[in-house]
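Late entry, evening session. Most of the bench is empty. Finally got around to the prediction I had been postponing all week. Sequence below, unchanged from the version circulated by S.P.
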Amino acid sequence: MIKLALRNLTRRRTRTLLTILGVAVAITFTVGLLSITEGFMNSFNQTTRERKEDIYVLPRQAGGSTSPLLESTGAVFLQAYVNDILNIDIDNVKAVYPIYTRTIYLGDAPDSMMGNFVVLNGVTPQFLPDLRPSLELEDGELFKEGDEGTIVVGAAVAKAQELEVGDTFPLGVEGREIKIVGILKSTGGFEDMIAYAPLQDVQLALNELGRITSAAVTVKDRNKTEETADAITALHSEDIVGRTTEELAGVVRNLLSMARAIHLSVASIALLIGVLFILSTMLMAVSERTKEIGTMRAMGVRRVTIFRLIITESLITCLIAGGLGCLGGVGLSKVITWAIHRFAGVAFLQAVVSPGIFGAGLLIAVLIGVLAGLYPAWRISKINIVEALRYE
């Protein structure tokens, strides 16, 4: 059956090749789009795994937003609340780390857009060793207790701005500059776009002394994390809200799932075109072979055999197209990654074709082959033998 199907397909090489190309482009487009959200998801999951905080304390104004981890509202709360959180009645708070976050403009980077900006985190000296132990230094050292006017920058920031240890770093306000004492190794995650400076330096530079944008909390018993987050919220419910890292991670994952759904919707259009393309091709192919198939029927070939033959031809075409499309999707993901690196300067966001996406591409190709081959196979298998032999 397979040999006969292959022979029939190679008899009309140009049409077969064009059909394979059309379906392969649809699969390539689908795999390429899905690789974008897969890459975002991998990068986010990696960053989440490496962070050690259990609860984020956020301003009430930002805590209810759809993306509370992003600096979008400009909301702050009093740093004095840190002591209240440490002494909470539930006695499950291990440590609290105040943070002041601000995205600042650094000036045009040589080869990127994202390299023009950095997420500046004002933190205490204990923040990096306690909550970011996975971060390693490429050069220099971390700032210590009592250090002033110092900063540690991520790998992507240093590369985009061509910075080295000992260079000055602009805080983006009133021409204020501080000294780079350390450059972090590339993690392949979001941390590469972040810089860390002493909390008080950032607060003074931004005229926000005594105020913070968030606080990271570690707990003694993780089984009581949600209960502790609720107790933190109750302390100053008009100003702050406690949210677990799992809760916030779920928000981001939901957003990424929505993006994946949008990509699937767009890709579905390409797949529908692929189905219609191969359906029209198969209808044309069986129409041209009506007399041939009538002769086969007259020789005693059963209807089910004819049906299987057409389905096999459609499946072979789509499997070849699916394989080429998946390989094309891998190539497209490389192009997307290169474009993100080249034009956005974001080295940690990589489009990824996982085995699951690769398998999904092949499965889609099989479904296209079956769906597009059913009607032509049924139609030609039901044709009257006498009419088929008279067909011109």
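Two things to note before I forget:
Residues 51-251 form one domain.
The two ends are 26 Å apart (CA to CA).
Will write this up properly tomorrow.
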